Amino acid sequence: MTNVEIKNLSDKYVMGTYKRNPIALVKGKGVKVWDADGKEYLDLLAGIAVCSLGHSNPKVVAAIRKQAGILGHTSNLYYNEIQALVAETLVKNSFADKVFFCNSGAEANEAAIKLARRYAFEKMDGRYELITMENSFHGRTLATITATGQKKFQLGFEPLPDGFKYVPFNDAAALEAAISDKTCGVMLEPIQAEGGVNIPAPGYLRAVREICDSKGLLLILDEVQTGMGRTGSLFAYEQFGIKPDIMTLAKALGNGFPVGAMLATDPVASVLVPGTHASTFGGNYLAMSACLASLDCLLNDGVLENCRAAGEHFLKKLRGLKRKHKSISEVRGMGLIVAVDTSADCFEIVGKCLEKGLLVNCTSATTLRFVPPLTIRKSEINKAVGILDEVFSEL
Ligand SMILES: *Cc1c(COP(=O)(O)O)cnc(C)c1O
C-alpha cells in the first residue's frame, strides 16, 4: 500500500487519538527509515526516544528472532531465566536491588505509585499523598495523568484519583512547603522530557533528595525517557549525584519491543508480596530477550561514549544555527535529549523537515525536541543540522 492508502485505511478504522504526520514508515536501518512510497528519512525522533540503538539493531533482531523460535510467553506463574538475567543486569548497574517488569512507561509509573502507597500503608502510618511537578509527564492511565502536572491531559477524565499535589519544577522551597502529614513521596523526571527538555538547575535534585531524607519520604524518579543511556550515562540520576528509592523505565528498554520496568531498593520493594501487583505479559521471554540484547549493546558496544560525543557535537552545531537564525532563542540538551526554543511555528518546522527527509517533533508550538538513536554518527548530525538550517532560512 502507498502512504495515502495506508492513511485512508487507518483513518477509517483506527481511533483518532493521534495527530499523525501523513506518512507510514515501513522499514528502518540505524538512523534511517523509509516510508511506504520509498522516500528516505533521517530519524531524529527514533519512535519517541525508543529506538536508541538504531532501527533493526542486528543484536536485538537476532535475539528476538532466536527467542521467538524457542519460547515466547509463559506468564509469571513460572520462573524465567532471561527475566532473571535482565533484572540482574539492571540491578548491578543501578541503585536498585529488585525489579518488577511490565509493558510500558505508564504501567511502570502505576507500579511505582502503587509501591509507594503500599509502603506508606505499611510503614508510614497511612500516608498516601505524592507530590509531583507542574509540566511533568508520567503517562495516560488515570493515576498517571493525575501524577502528570498538566491540566490538558486530565480535562474531561475526572474524577481523578485522590492523593496528588503539584509544585513547580526546580523549586525546592515550594516542594518543602507542600509537604503535609499525608505526604509519602515525591515523583519527578530528572529532566522533564515531554514538558520541553527542562534540565534541572545545579543542586536542585540533590536538594530534593535531601528534603526526602529529612522528612522520611520516598523519592521516585521517572526515567522512562531519560534512562537507558539517553543523557550519556546509563541513568540520568548518576549525573546529578543522587540515588532514588524507586525508578521507572520503559521507552528504550527493549529498543522498540514494548517493555517497562520499575526498580526499587530492597526495603521498599519488600512490601510487594505475592498478590499485591502483577502483569500477565510483564517480562515475558520475547520482551526480555530484546532487553538483554539491548543492555548488552548499551553496556559493551561504546554506545554511551558515542551518545556523549554526538550530543556535544549536536549542541555545538545547533548553537551555530542559533547565531545564524534570530528566531532561535535557546538551545539546550544533555547527551542526546536536545531541544531548540524558537519564536517560529514548530509545527510548520516539523512539516518542512518531513518534506526534506528529516523526522523531528515538537513538545509545544515553541520547542523542537530531538531524541535520535544514541548510535548516530557526526556525519548524520551534520546532515540533519543542514536540513534544519535550510528550513529556518525559508521561514
Ligand atoms: C513516554 C513517557 C511515559 C509514558 O510511557 P508510555 O510507554 O507511553 O506509557 C512516562 N513518563 C515519561 C517521562 C515519558 O517520557
What does this protein look like?
- There is one protein chain.
- The chain has 395 residues and is α/β, with parallel strands linked by helices.
- The chain folds into two domains: 3-56 and 302-394, Alpha-Beta Complex (Aspartate Aminotransferase, domain 1); 59-300, Type I PLP-dependent aspartate aminotransferase-like (Major domain) (Aspartate Aminotransferase, domain 2).
- It has helices spanning 3-13, 46-49, 58-68, 81-92, 105-123, 142-147, 151-154, 172-178, 204-215, 266-269, 285-300, 303-324, 346-355, 378-394, and strands at 25-29, 32-35, 40-43, 98-102, 129-133, 164-167, 183-188, 218-222, 246-249, 260-264, 328-334, 337-342, 358-359, 361-364, 367-370.
- The strands form three sheets. Strands 4-10-9-8-7-5-6 form a seven-stranded mixed β-sheet, with helices on both faces. A four-stranded mixed β-sheet has the order 1-2-3-13.
- A hairpin with a 2-residue loop joins strand 11 and strand 12.
- Helix 3 (58-68) packs antiparallel against helix 11 and helix 12 runs parallel beside helix 14 (378-394).
- The longest helix has 22 residues, at 303-324.
- The protein is globular.
- The relative contact order is 0.16.
- The model has no long low-confidence stretch (mean pLDDT 98).
- Pyridoxal-5'-phosphate binds at residues 104-106, 109, 137-139, 189, 193-194, 222, 224-225, 250-251.
- Residues 104-106, 109, 137-139, 189, 193-194, 222, 224-225, 250-251 line the site of pyridoxal-5'-phosphate.
